[in-house]
């Protein structure tokens, strides 16, 4: 039996991608690095597929490249983690929230409107303050908080001037009065492997924006809910973001198909890269 | 640690031994360089073009 072969598709080699490559080597696995900016393939080229590892991890920082490259690699006959369709669903907040709701997973009350006036009526229905988000995006960018119609009108006006067509889709969400923190659970292969509380004085809690973090319990309800959320969207590897509502308990806010985990590792000591590699090797042996 | 030439300012750039394609290196001249693997397996540095989307910390 030769070395187990796995692949990793990515754009930028961050700390996470380097950790995964090094965890694979430590396991004695042969990891093929598919640097996507140097990669091309004809859709359905099985001959090319035969030259690549049968199992490939998707780690592109670009949402668009992640979806397109996953779909192309799948067309070559490869097993991509996460699957292209699941990555597409997770990258679209309306799509993923709809899947979460269909699976009976509690989420913040969220609506969609396609014009300013309709968005105003939606915000009235949800109740101020409301959060306005892009349907695609991460790291809390372009997320705005509106205390009243006057705030919301200014935010929508600004969005209306932006050339991107997705700016015409207004995703409006209730503002959850979370206790100064949110939770990130990292799920790998249907298991919650680590969880952290992310604290921030700013209302957007996100370690990428400079918040501090502490370990959170991964056993029990929290881990189970995160696993169900990942499954609902079809993700095998996911960063699940949750809020704690004083009355309703945990609410799943987002599922990330290419999660960063540097902070999670620093805070919990869990070797997330090794967990990911073990899952890929398990798939490769099947 | 191999030393390569910055394609923008021509100055020396220290590239870590474990550098991977796609790794970013900020050079003293202010440019962000990307490690790229050539077909022959050797590495070169190119100015990083970005990914066209918001990303990263
Ligand atoms: Zn330079």
Automatic annotation (TrEMBL), chain A:
Looking up Gene3D superfamilies in the UniProt record yields:
3.40.50.20, ATP-grasp fold, A domain, ATP-grasp fold, B domain
Q: From the UniProt record, give one GO term of the biological process aspect.
A: lysine biosynthetic process
Protein name, per record? ATP-grasp domain-containing protein
Its Gene Ontology cellular component terms are: cytoplasm
The GO terms this record gives for MF are: ATP binding; coenzyme F420-2 alpha-glutamyl ligase activity; metal ion binding
From what superkingdom does this record's organism come? Archaea
- State the family named in the UniProt similarity comment for this chain: Belongs to the RimK family. LysX subfamily.
**Domain (ATP-grasp) ranges:** 97-281
Tell me which UniProt keywords the record has, alphabetically: Amino-acid biosynthesis, ATP-binding, Ligase, Magnesium, Metal-binding, Nucleotide-binding
Please give the cofactor(s) recorded in the UniProt entry for this protein: Mg(2+)
The yes or no answer to whether the keyword Amino-acid biosynthesis is present is yes
Q: InterPro entries from the entry?
A: ATP-grasp (IPR011761), ATP-grasp_RimK-type (IPR013651), ATP_grasp_subdomain_1 (IPR013815), LysX/ArgX_preATP_grasp (IPR054562), LysX_arch (IPR011870), PreATP-grasp_dom_sf (IPR016185), Rp_bS6_RimK/Lys_biosynth_LsyX (IPR004666)
From TrEMBL, chain B:
Q: Which domain of life is it from?
A: Archaea
Organism per entry: Pyrodictium occultum
Looking up Pfam families in the UniProt record yields: Zn_ribbon_LysW
What protein name applies here? Sulfonate ABC transporter
- Record CDD domains: LysW
């Amino acid at each position: 039996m030769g070395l187990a072969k796995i692949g990793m598709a990515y754009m930028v080699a961050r700390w996470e991608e380097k950790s995964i490559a090094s965890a694979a080597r430590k396991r004695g696995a042969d990891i093929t690095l598919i640097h996507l900016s140097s990669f091309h393939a004809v859709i359905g080229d099985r001959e090319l597929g035969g030259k690549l590892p049968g199992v490939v991890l998707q780690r592109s920082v670009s949402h668009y490249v992640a979806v397109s490259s996953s779909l192309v690699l799948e067309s070559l006959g490869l097993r991509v983690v996460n699957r292209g369709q699941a990555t597409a669903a997770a990258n679209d907040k309306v799509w993923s929230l709809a899947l979460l709701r269909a699976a009976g997973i509690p989420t913040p009350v969220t609506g969609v409107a396609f014009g300013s006036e309709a968005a105003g009526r939606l915000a009235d229905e949800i109740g101020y303050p409301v959060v306005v988000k892009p349907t695609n995006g991460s790291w809390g960018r372009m997320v705005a908080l509106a205390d009243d119609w006057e705030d919301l009108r200014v935010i929508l006006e600004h969005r209306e001037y932006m050339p991107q067509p997705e700016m015409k889709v207004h995703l409006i969400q209730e503002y959850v009065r979370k206790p100064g923190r949110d939770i990130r659970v990292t799920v790998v292969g249907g298991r919650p492997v680590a969880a952290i509380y992310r604290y921030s004085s700013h209302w957007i809690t996100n370690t990428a924006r400079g918040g501090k973090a502490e370990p959170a319990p991964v056993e029990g309800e929290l881990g189970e809910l995160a696993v169900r959320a990942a499954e609902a969207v079809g993700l095998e590897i996911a960063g699940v973001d949750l809020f704690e509502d004083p009355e309703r308990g945990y609410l799943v806010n987002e599922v990330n198909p290419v999660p960063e985990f540097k902070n999670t590792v620093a805070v919990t000591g869990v070797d997330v890269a090794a967990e990911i590699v073990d899952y890929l090797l398990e798939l490769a042996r099947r | 640690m191999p030393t390569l030439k910055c394609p923008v300012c021509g100055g020396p750039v220290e590239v870590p031994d474990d550098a991977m394609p796609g790794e970013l290196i900020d050079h003293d001249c202010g440019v962000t360089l990307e490690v790229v693997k050539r077909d022959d397996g050797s590495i070169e540095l190119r100015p990083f073009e970005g990914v066209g989307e918001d990303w990263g910390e």
